[in-house]
Amino acid sequence: MEVNKTSKGKLLASGLVPFALVILLIAYIFGPGGELLELGTPLPEITLEQVYFMKGEIQVSVRNSGPIPVEVVMADVNDRIQPSAIEPDRFLGRFETSLVRIPFEWNEAEPYIIGLTIEDGTRFEKEIKAAAPALEPTGNLIGFFAIIGTYVGIIPVMVGLLWLPFIKRISKAKYNFFLAITVGLLLFLGIDAIEEAVEVSNEFLARSFNGALLVATVVILSFLGLYYSGNKLVDRAKSSPYSKPAALGLMIAIGIGLHNFGEGLAIGAAVGLGQIAFSTFLIVGFTLHNTSEGFAIAAPMAKGKPIIGKLFAMGLIAGTPAIFGAWLGGFVYSPFTAIIFLSIGAGAIFQVIVAILKWIREEGDKGLSSASVAAGIAIGMMIMYLTSILV
Amino acid sequence: MNISKSGTMIIILIVAVMVSGFYFVFPDRINAEPEEKIFVTHTGGIVKTSGEVLDPIYKISTVEFDPEKYLREFNYGRVSTTPEGKTVREFTIIAEDDKSMEISPGVFYNVWTFNGTVPGPTIRATEGDIVKVKFINNGSKSHTMHFHGIHPAEMDGVFEFVGPNGGQFTYEFEAGPVGVHPYHCHVMPLEEHIVHGLYGVYIVDPKVARPPADEMVMVLNGFDTDFDTENNFYAANTIPFYYQHHPIQIFTDELIRVYVVNMVEFDPINNLHLHGNLYHYYPTGTDTVPSFYTDMITLSQTERGIMEFEYDYPGKYLFHAHKVEFSEKGWVGIFLVKENPKFVSTGVEYGS
Fold first, then answer.
1. What CATH number has the domain bearing residue B246?
2. Do B232 and A121 touch (CB under 8 A)?
3. pLDDT tens-place string over residues B147-158
4. What is the pLDDT averaged over residues B259-277?
5. Which ipTM value was assigned to this complex?
6. From CA A311, how far away is CA A162, in angstroms rounded?
7. Can the peptide bond before residue A32 be classed as cis, meaning omega within 30 degrees of 0?
8. pTM of the model
9. Is A134 domain-assigned?
10. Does some domain include residue A271?
11. Whose CA, among A14, A51, B187, B235, lies 20 to 30 Å from A99?
12. Closest residue of B to A57, CA-based?
């Protein structure tokens, strides 16, 4: 007992000592060692995150992305000073944001550079390639986005699910080949989502957010979270032999749903930013592209007992988030939200990939090293790459 | 059987995550502010805001440098006479380079000054007067005063550096030629010393005085507050938009004489356009016969001259750079022409 107690105390002490040292170090820097921090001149920095073109007014959200508080004192459009308003106020602490309202009769589709000057005279700017009116959530537009979301999300996934009877009848090697195609498709989607998230963070997010690391962190957290809950789901399903494929299908549906939410955001944002022509292309591309997603859900389900209702529900889980994404992207696009959801989607996809590979290894004869699996993954990637050129 | 249950759980989870996503979207739109402020746009629109107004309007109470006062302020120096009967005008000019001035509302810039202001005081003498300028450098760098005009080489303020922290030098020369001239620091890097504000106006009147007039000085200048060798602000007399918000009051049928000096750096030219009128222009002010009758002059660096005009009709008249970029960055003003109450009586001498 006695020995145990001292060793416990030692354990506790050995755990706490480094902490205490760190606290001491921080206290020193904030206290007597403060001079160390006075080296160098901290430079103020603001980031113009988003620009909205309203009727007779340009609005820009600004964030203090530097190490010291700043004061926003002047706004300009194309380097010409404009009287404007800042809400709630012009004083920005670290990471704080304000909205600058610049009354300005802007012209649609023309490029603009919005500039803000802070108290030391430094000017920061953001370039908009083509001004487009901010979308108002009218009934028409809500319906429009819902239809687009249906086209991009639900219909292609449902169409893809129709492959189920075909997959059901083929041999095991061929079946593994089709599963591997799914892996290839998903791998491509996951990488695509990460690329997109990093792109958004480069364009919109203040550097102080460490955009790429934010993406990495969210991807891994999402992967771990879904991996854990997915395994729980599959474990529970083990009691009945037919529900494991269904569980896997559900996992894939959820992963793809999260992914489609991100795609919906991208489409909504494209419409919001006035790239309508581009957006039409985007929709055609996504529709083709996403048919493969239905296939991804259908492939593992082929081993289970096909229940139309269940299949339909999974199609909805995978497809409907595109509608929500389009609404959010079109009406209240926030780069931060977009990055988070794109990253969650990517993590979800990778989790699904791991689940399918595990499934192939357990069910297949040669595991992952068979020619059909390797060819399937390669072909999946290529299909996605080729259809992505359309987007 | 458990799948559907877990499935719904996960759907609920997804919905929850989506809804919580709105937190990132809406945070700064939730605040409701009761108090509303109003401001007027450049196109006359009236806008309400719950926040603060960002507008380069200077209030009289916050003015550090008063363009109103500078406009008509001429310094004739401490006057004495030599045994030969020549007029001596003595000036004391102190240079500093540590002052931070609010050059536009909320924008602080490290100005280098002669006697505490940008531009420095307007020095005025009559042709032939002896001008003595006691120059004290209280700055942290070497500075000089270089007058445009005619003077001996050692009075040129180029090679005779006046050291920091109290260095002294007395510039002494005979005023001439007649006209309007700039003076500025001539220490290298020259661009830096000029754009920080070490310049001013030096006027030499002819021995036979010009006709009485409402006289004013306009130094066309700019500030590059972010050091990218492009001006962020332009103005007549330092403060952007000042004379637009505080029009210069003049009277009809009264001679107006403007001594205009272009000190804008970086941009090769500046210009001056007057609305509703034309002016007689005397380049460098060296001649008594005007060279142009125009409403538009183009000025390169330190190019200057005298403008003379009278307004026939009362009202508000703009004057501004017709390089409109400059006017939209502050180099714009208004003459508020009032009906002349003293028109019937003899002319009143203003500003002299």
1. 2.60.40.420
2. yes
3. 999 999 999 999
4. 95
5. 0.78
6. 10
7. no
8. 0.77
9. no
10. yes
11. B235
12. B47
Q: Are residues A232 and A165 in the same domain?
A: yes
The predicted-structure confidence for A356-374, as pLDDT tens digits, reads as follows 788 778 766 666 678 888 8
Domains of chain A: total: 3
Q: From B344, B62, B121, B109, select the one nearest B223 (Cα to Cα).
A: B109
Chain A hits for B223, Cβ within 8 Å: 121
Same domain for A367 and A241: yes
pLDDT of residue A365: 63
β partners of residue B93: B135
Whether A56 sits inside 8 A of B240 (CB atoms) is no
- Angle (CA) B270-B275-B278 rounded to 5° is 85
Task: Give domain status of residue A133, yes or no.
Answer: no
Same domain, A111 and A184: no
Decide if B52 is inside a domain: no
**Chain B contact present for A201, CB below 8 A:** no
CB A77 within 8 A of CB A102: yes
Together in a domain, A280 and A207: yes
The total domain count for chain B is 1
Residue-number span of the structural domain to which A381 is assigned: 139-390
Q: What is the pLDDT of residues A290-300, one digit of tens each?
A: 777 777 787 77
Task: Give the pLDDT band (50/70/90) at residue A192.
Answer: confident
Q: Is residue A171 part of a domain?
A: yes
- Biggest CA–CA distance in chain B, Å, is 119
User: Which CATH number covers residue A106?
Assistant: 2.60.40.10
Closest CA to A255 of A287, A303, A223, A285: A223
Q: Which chain A residues in 241-280 lie under 8 Å from chain B, judged by CB atoms?
A: 243, 246-247, 250, 254, 257-258, 261
Interface test with A, best of B4, B5, B10 (most A CBs within 10 A): B10
